[in-house]
């Protein structure tokens, strides 16, 4: 369902990154990193209207094989999801659902008192849940 | 092109002359179009074409097979019948039949035009009751008389016709728009109904396409490009849906129509001369999917261009390309390898060229969309290059050359183009001198032609992609393109050009902690540096790679070995003056992690002591490594808050370490010059700027500036194991102050690994180096001589480091002795021999900054002096920290005071010794006097066995002795007799310890020479103012040399009056006594003291002039004894009669 799901901290350092395809992981990482440009751009535009509480940023950019979607939490943690662009059956609402679930998973993970905010996420539970999410079996 | 059919059965030839005039007039002005369904009103410019009445389109209209494009919008019946009778005869029926026909087809857009050719004179003279127009209106225009209109024949009435002609044109425009409103609504309904049937077997997309496109074209003509665009967008979406959702449905027969192989893959062309060339082709020959898509996009782009929304074109391009690719894939079109790349490339470049020409550089939104297109073009070109063997280092094989030929033919030639400048006034040519750009297809063909051209175009595109990304501040994306470009340069064997791109990327990635990616970039860099032969940079990069935890161990150890190998050769190749660029500095954080710094010394650290610091450092190297030196420098600790306090802490010895607050006065004046506000501001110096937030999290590529390494702790030649190492660093604490660790520097061969400023990462401990002089002092209260006095030696160690056997020696001045204080039960306590004149006080285990007090006791002899006078002593200290001796003055008060007096009673002499207590409380015992002079004996008159007597301040004790001098010994022989008084004393606290107190008295005039007796007559009873006789008798008691004596009566003038002489001289030569009588008179009643007599030695004046005066010398008190001294005379009042 998704190629890659990434959680990126507010200082743009990756906190968590999972890919479905290990061989393409590097390439996907580069794409996720570049997507931060668009996230910043969109957040900058969003600054003008503080009442817009929309966390979902929509499609950041697309390539021939990927569609890259973004989401930013109120604490400026970014979620990036890379989706197979040949999967036309996937609706925007489903992408939103992925982000909603991911947000909940992330919130649960950082609620762990042993987690230091800003550190990388190594929670196995979180990883399992994200892998599930990535495979589309939510 | 709007078709409007004007039908005329009656007056064809007449109307022909009017027709062109009307058609020309219609587009001359705009007309307000009030639209249905609350769509906004719009001013539109109409065009019209005339056409003879024809039933065929009406037939189609009725059947629902019509196209709005061909449908007649307005039907006009023209007549020039001005005669009412003629009208009634023929025209009315004709019109009636015409209208009925129209109604039967459901057409209500009609108009009757009456061309008036009335004679002016006729109309003037005879006004007809009813005109033909009235009749027509009466007959047909009952509901809509605005559809019946007359116009003066402009051929005949040139002046008058203008007004009526204007009205006519206006009316035609209005009716046309009304018709459009009706027809568009109807047509939309038709489209909807057709769309509903899209899943029917015989439904054909192409038919539907033309149906809806006609509507779009109408909108376009009516200058509603956005609405036209909506129609195209709907068609676009519908087509995509068909392909992606029902792509393999057998029911969709028409799909096979688009499934023709892609033999040609022309890109889009946004500046075609004939825009509808393809439309024609679709209708007649059929087109490939790509061609159809191209046409659709071109139309959309054209409409967007009309709206002047060029950014939207760029925005839509990628979606268009990708969805088309997907469609090609879905319907499994056969195509040549690389064909789609070519198509994408040409499309991308076409749009980019349009944007480049149209856009101002500050229009960021357009460039935001352009940047990914540049990148795409670059990527596609690369793919093609790979396919055709055009990449650096490759030469195309014959097969690949064949592919090039095939692709080139497939790309096709660009169709004849409109010049943008002429076509679109909003487009401009930015650089007129630039040679006209080649079309996208030409550029691609050229690039595929040779390796050089390919490389040139690739580099150009990559640079453009980077610069456009940078222009829209998408730096990460720009760096990513840089990565590709860098790799390309590497392949070109130009690693020096690649390095810049890789370093930029590395900086970006490291700054945001993307370790996996940054380690990959390091690998690229290492590759570059190796090729360049930059051994320094290579060494540094190898070192960094070997510390990347993200990489595989095998890779890391390989680069670790490379690093060690390269490090060895580095010494010889290192450049002499390292600049920041090729410096031998490395970022320490990439290789080591400083976990903790702890000062091992106990606080405070004394100046010149060894500073011991424990550094907890994690080595990230895969294996152990030997480090030449690890240095940790520290600087004066400055916090903004404590800055003021620091001034007091740090002595002002060194100028550089005393940061002063720069306080300046600020005065704000009002407009009239009076003072508004005064304040004091302080600028914190820039060097003490608090940490910037970004630098705390971000990692840098080049190390921070080297701090001042003049104050360091260090360790040399130490092996660091992978993982955590505990290191002990040493240094000498040279300078005083509060310090904070600043930077760590690890030296390995000629490389130096510099850390960040430590204060930004962990809070390094601060420590204080201080110095404090040692001191010794003596503390005491008032000191009393003669008894044991407590005294305290106070030693404050300061920062002096004491040897274990340190001693302080105390040397006393003469008659002063000292000892360490003893307990009262100590046997030596009572023994005065334990006091010594020199004392060594050992400072056992004395530590710096310790303070210790030593109780001591001093004792000084009490010199036998009569008067109470303090005694000065001093104790000289010699301390281990000082070469100079330190004299401390001490002042002792005597414990008691002894005085003596000599008393006379006739010839008897008595010695009185008075002991006066002072500050101390003492017991006295065994007082004795001694006199060694022969013939002088002192008899003790004190009560025998003497009990100890306590004296204290204001309590005196008196001892009495009689002096008996043998008469043989005259005073002439022994003028002075020395008498020693000795008494034992003890303090109340130590009553058993008796010490001696001795005092020597000199006795003079210890024998009586003369005795004086006075007697008053009548004896013992005197009356006031009665003269009495005072008998004075002077008797010589002992032999003496004084012959002439002078007596004087010294009386109080208020008590006694001497009658006659009050003084006289007697000679005692050869006589033993003299009696003198004097007359005295009491002047007061009561008990009066006897007038006192004074006896003096008299020396008569000699004959010589020098010695002419007589001299009188008084006797000392012991030589004359006045036996009647202090006798009192009772004087009673005189008899009253005598007064």
TrEMBL record, chain A:
Query: In which compartments does the protein localize?
Result: Cytoplasm, Perinuclear region
- Listed InterPro entries: Longin-like_dom_sf, Sedlin, TRAPPC2L
Matching CDD domains, A to Z?
TRAPPC2L
Task: Name the major location.
Answer: cytoplasm
The alphabetized list of GO BP terms reads: endoplasmic reticulum to Golgi vesicle-mediated transport
| Transmembrane domains' residue ranges | none
Protein name per Swiss-Prot or TrEMBL = Trafficking protein particle complex subunit 2-like protein
Name the family.
Answer: Belongs to the TRAPP small subunits family. Sedlin subfamily.
* Record's keyword terms, sorted: ER-Golgi transport, Transport
Q: Which GO terms describe its cellular component?
A: perinuclear region of cytoplasm
Q: Kindly indicate whether the keyword Metal-binding belongs to this entry.
A: no
What is the protein's species of origin?
A: Drosophila rubida
Question: Hydrolase: is it a keyword of this entry?
Answer: no
Q: Read off the Pfam families from this record.
A: Sedlin_N
UniProtKB/TrEMBL annotation, chain B:
Subcellular location per the Swiss-Prot or TrEMBL entry: Golgi apparatus
Q: What cellular component terms from Gene Ontology apply here?
A: cytosol; TRAPPII protein complex
The UniProt entry lists the main location of this chain as Golgi
Provide the Trafficking protein particle complex subunit domain boundaries.
456-539
Where in this chain does the record put each TRAPPC10 Ig-like domain?
771-894
**Record carries keyword Transcription regulation:** no
Q: What is this protein called?
A: Trafficking protein particle complex subunit 10
Q: Which GO terms describe its biological process?
A: early endosome to Golgi transport; intra-Golgi vesicle-mediated transport
Transmembrane segments in this chain: where? none
Cite the TRAPPC10/Trs130 C-terminal domain residue spans from the record: 972-1132
Q: Which residues form the TRAPPC10/Trs130 N-terminal domain?
A: 4-314
Keyword list (alphabetical) reads: Golgi apparatus, Transport
Residue ranges under compositional bias (Basic residues)? Answer: 689-700
State the InterPro entries in the record: Ig_TRAPPC10, TPC11, TPR-like_helical_dom_sf, TRAPPC10/Trs130, TRAPPC10/Trs130_C, TRAPPC10/Trs130_N
Q: Which organism is it from?
A: Drosophila rubida
List the residue ranges of the region (Disordered).
679-700
